[in-house]
Amino acid sequence: MMTGAEYIASIRGLELQARVLGADQAALVDDPLVAPSLRAVAATYDAARSAAGRDLACAQSSLTGEPINRFTHLHQSPADLVAKVRLLRHLGNVTACCFQRCVGLDAANAVFSVTFECDRQHGTRYHDRFREFWLQVQRRDLTVDGAMTDPKGDRGKRPAQQADPDLFVRVVARRPGGVVIRGAKLHQTGMLNAHEILVMPTMAMRPGEEQYAICCALPTGAAGVRHLYGRQASDTRKREAGAPDAGNATFGGQEVMTVFDDVFVPDERVFLCGEVDWSGPLVERFAGYHRQSYGGCKVGVGDVLIGASAWLARLNGVDGASHVRDKLVEMVHLNETMFSCGVACSAFGHATAAGNYEIDLLLANVCKQNVTRFPHEIARLATDLAGGLLGTMPALGDLGDPVVGPYLRKYLATVPGVDPVDRMKVLRLVENLVAGAGAVGYLIESVHGAGPPQAQRIMIGRQADLEGKIGLARTLLGHSPAGASGR
Predict the structure, then answer these.
(1) What CATH number did the domain enclosing 371 receive?
(2) Is 102 a catalytic residue?
(3) Which H/E stretch holds residue 284?
(4) Which of 254, 298, 425, 481 has fewest C-beta within 10 Å?
(5) 75 carries an active-site annotation
(6) Tens of pLDDT along 5-27?
(7) Is residue 361 within 8 Å of residue 402, measured between CB atoms?
(8) Residues 6+ apart with CB under 8 A from 217
(9) How many domains are contained in the chain?
(10) Is-catalytic flag, 255?
(11) One of 44, 72, 202, 255 is an active-site residue; which one?
(12) Contact 409/224 with Cβ under 8 angstroms?
């Protein structure tokens, strides 16, 4: 297993084709805009060696029997699924941001089981290919970016009906030994920090849409792959000297648009190609795993925001006020509710036909439905507790100004003995999470990551077993089962 430093060195050698704020950028590791997100991924490697994270971050490979980082693990039990959620919460505590490896882990577990079942039905050989690919991921301790979301174009039309057929990733040619793909994937969290891309279809495809039913893997630096860096609120603060106003100068998230401009993918890296009947199960299983993830990572970030809010109340001298305590209790209640759902869907996990374990889909979707709402309420309460200075505070850099600095220390003072500098730093951390760059991972991603709210509601409706529940009521009232003569 790599250390965080070894991981960063491995990314330095990738030479990705990337464009950051309008300029080609080769030295991504050294760009202050990108480096915080790279350090967040490095934390997932260091966790496997730390006293606090070792027991959660390490697992035993089901493919080799060797110790591996849990972010490359194929779940082997409900206990593994629970450990994943606990690890994500721990890393959220450490980084207070998205640490960017969950999507690849969730994609791998979905592809592992789907390829097995597809082979069993169609006589294909995708599962052995994927096992070999993932074996190399485990042995080399790689970071894999799961790529699912296509641009989609006109949402009222199917892929083949689009004015531009490339708005969904598709196979445009078959050549000896492989296929050529074209298109783009949006919202690619941590793509510039990954070694490999695991491409999946963005939705359940239908007969006639075989060219869009493609699942494959390719290096992030493959010929024809170009990465366009996304903007985040207040992101250029990271490029300021010392980045004091970034709020979280050490860690951060990253979002990328990745373009596939006629990229050749060898057959051994193709895991689904035209089997439209298995595109839907792949999307559904990946979404379930990823919705489980949110019961860990967003909760870990929430812990930090709750802690910062409680600290601010103390610095302001109001931590004893009953309404302040009540708001903090509500924040904790919401946070632990999300965590409970993440643990519950894991504890009720079950084995797939391939042998790895899948979460309870209903509870995973309930988990993510809560995550679409609760972080926003936690952020609202944090904003309430922080006060108006959250949006009007002068720059932390002004503290060193001989004229302005003394005024800041004088007029931003609160409780005797409290350093106003501490208050300003905590305010910037809260600002980062509720309105700055950190809000992308904590708030926007909580709504749209792993599918928007309606996607979970659709799945909850499918999994709810309303007929079974009606049967319970009928039995209790002495009615015969639905459909019987006494209906």
Answers:
(1) 1.20.140.10
(2) yes
(3) helix 279-316
(4) 481
(5) no
(6) 999 999 998 989 999 998 888 78
(7) no
(8) 133, 144, 196, 197, 198, 199, 265, 269, 271
(9) 1
(10) yes
(11) 255
(12) no
